[in-house]
Design goal:
The structure is a single chain. With 180 residues, the chain is mainly alpha-helical. It contains eight helices and two strands. The longest helix has 18 residues. It is globular and about 50 Å long.
Amino acid sequence: MFWRGFRTALKRRGLTGIRLVISDQHAGLVAALKRSFQGAAHQRCRVHFTRNLLAHVPKTHTDMLAAFFRTVFAQPDPATVAATWDEVRDQLATRFPKVGVLMEAAKAEVLAFTAFPRPVPGVSPGAGADGRDSRDQRGRLPAGVLSEGRGPRLPASTVPARRRTRYSKKPSDRRVDRQI
């Protein structure tokens, strides 16, 4: 019931031309998306899938598995992505059989993006028609301008000691702030 209202609200707001929907594997959500956006492909969210995989390995191996799994998505073309998926699945399945079973079952769901063209290099996925990122547009500043009339923001470690706040870590700075 919730998902029906959600997708209806999206359509009312003008959402059209959907070709790929990425979500977690919530059964109600997937069914609602298929009814609502007929003809659109569905991809299982790779972040959620990675978390599902990590639940089946010891904590000491999670970094290794995550790094190994990420190599699948760094490949240049769909054929290499699929081949790398199979290699990673086979290698992980020798040590973690449940991971191999999960990867075998989810291959088509997680790799649905390979049926679409790759994004243009150097352009953010959130970029508009003019190539500007939505973060640039939010501030209403020309592309590439960080701030109007002000210099770039500096990390706290580069701010001179006299400008540090009362929350500074140096004891000498705290004494000065108490006097103020």
